[in-house]
UniProtKB/TrEMBL annotation:
Source organism of the structure: Candidatus Borkfalkia faecipullorum
Cellular location(s): Cell membrane
Protein name according to UniProt: Chromate transporter
Record carries keyword Cell membrane: yes
Family note: Belongs to the chromate ion transporter (CHR) (TC 2.A.51) family.
UniProt entry tagged with the keyword Transmembrane helix: yes
GO CC terms of this entry: plasma membrane
Major location (coarse): membrane
């Protein structure tokens, strides 16, 4: 028992170390905010380590986006808790924040001189292109994993059309409203399907009872017809048999 406990503790510490190194790397080499981190988080913990499934990852992104706080920090907290409990959540959240904090702190010390460097400006322009690619890559992977049914496709086309329309006409519409509206639509569809299933389950016993009753009523005439035919056969046989005391031709021949 003691050895098994020590093995579990070592495995837990090893997993915490893996979480710390992974999120330090993600936090250090990711530019563009939480959406750019999603691609790296998916590659690290879904594709490589397989600690989180594809559907669970999609649900995690939806929850992380709809809850207060940055998307990357919420995602790191979720994966850390999934892999290592409370300590895993704390380590993952801390390690994903440390690189950005240190980099911003160092830049703030030399901010004016830093922005005047031409090389830095061109480097950031190239990084912006890479960030757009990372976000599109993560979105494409999530779209491929999404279930292709009518409800999801209608919601996707509706949200995509709203995003394009609001971008063209420069309408400020928070992404939180998209999530809330889509969540309300999903809840409405779920409740509608649930009510329909319950009504169907309630109607099935009555339909079965009516069918059984109709079968019984069909059997009654058949039984009466069978009983009538049996009675007719017995009457006919009785008519063919000689009555008590009546002499048949065979018996008369024998007496002669």
């Amino acid at each position: 028992m003691q050895k098994q406990k020590e093995k579990r503790e070592r495995a837990g510490l090893r997993r915490l170390l893996v979480l710390a190194l992974s999120f330090l790397k993600i936090g250090l080499f990711t530019f563009g905010g939480g959406y750019a981190m999603i691609a790296l988080i998916q590659k690290e913990f879904v594709a490589k380590k397989k600690w989180v499934g594809e559907e669970e990852f999609l649900d995690m992104v939806a929850i992380a986006e709809s809850t207060p706080g940055p998307l990357a920090i919420n995602s790191a907290t979720y994966i850390g808790y999934k892999a290592g409990g409370v300590w895993g959540a704390a380590v993952s959240t801390l390690c994903v924040c440390i690189p950005a904090f240190l980099i911003i702190y160092l830049i703030s010390l030399f901010f004016d001189a830093f922005l005047q460097l031409t090389l830095v400006n061109y480097a950031f322009k190239g990084i912006q292109v890479a960030v757009v690619f990372l976000i599109l890559n993560a979105g494409w992977k999530m779209l491929k994993q999404m279930k292709k049914n009518a409800f999801n496709l209608i919601l996707f086309c509706g949200v995509f059309g709203c995003l394009v329309g609001f971008s063209v006409f420069a309408v400020d519409f928070s992404t939180l409203f998209y999530i809330l509206i889509c969540g309300a639509c999903g809840l409405a569809v779920y409740l509608t399907v649930l009510v329909a299933k319950r009504r169907k389950a309630r109607s099935e016993p009555t339909m079965q009872g009516n069918a059984a009753l109709s079968e019984k009523t069909k059997d009654v005439p058949e039984k009466t017809e069978q009983n009538g035919s049996v009675e007719e056969e017995t009457d006919a046989s009785r008519q063919g048999e000689p009555q008590k005391g009546e002499r048949t031709p065979e018996k008369e021949g024998e007496s002669k």
